Amino acid sequence: MLQTLTSDRKPQTPASGRIVLLIDKKEADLFFPGGFSLPGAEVFEAHGAGLDGLIDLPLLGSLEPDVVVTSWSTPHFPESTLSEIPSLRYLCHTSGSVRTLLPRRLIEQGLVVTNWGTLAADTVAEHALLLILSGLRRSPEWPDIIAGKRRWQPSPIRTRTLYGKRVGIHGFGNVARSLVHLLRPFGARISAFSTGVPLSHFAEYEVSWSDSLESLFASNEIIVDCEALNTETRGCVSRAILESMPPGALFVNVGRGAIVDETAVADLAASGRLYAALDVYDVDPIAPDSPLHAVDAIVKSPHIAGPTSDQFIRCGDLARRNIAAFLRGEPVSAKVTLEIYDRAT
Fold it and tell me: Which fold has domain 2-116+309-343?
């Protein structure tokens, strides 16, 4: 369905241009609850502009867009996009990673791409802190105490504090850096490992550098995984890596489920060898046959570490500001460079 939201072409202004929203109604309500408009620009909605999982280029091209607005529901853009739609100059992604949305080649060809930038990092880090504390305080065991199935005193649950703990962070992007700030008041001794990150970045945040994934896991009581998922990192947290953690250590994952051997996490947590607190899974939402379901001791949250409900409007505001700036010929924020594209999940 093609719907024109602003049908009359207005006189040229510094923000003039054609914008096509390639997002569904639920996403539009999340990011632009008051509707999307931009003075001086024509705005169109193109619902169902997909064909076998790809953008319907003839349909989109007929609108001659300068800017397209995308999100999770948007179909994939093929490498031929810019040759078939020469008017397209800017893709404004309202959410996070664009790796599954468009090929790297489009950025190489000069397409400007932005996303929600660092806006999600703080809330993901906040959720990571929640999972750490829930894991240490053993929240899965609380219901039995409340229900009277276990004795209340003395100390029926083996709880621990975060203060002074050794915390290792796998990955050192925006989420990890935000988490470092949240951990500081606890006096945590923080180390990190991530391939391709300059040592100066670790030094800037006063974080110790681990020279390998093995040493990171073996030397910390708490591990927080927020590494990007790519061909090199898929499955890198193996059973052997997990078994190298100190007995009773806590493994937290707010990155991607496919980073880790999910069956190994379930087995080791069931045996009490380690504790786990997870927000992401090998399949999201978590598969009905995942072995994690059988382990009550694992803290599980349903992939909600990203922007909280009250933060999506900020992502929409960033998108609107970026589009206005782009159409005025000004720099945009949260630009997805080739380096960012390569390191994203």
Answer: Rossmann fold (3.40.50)
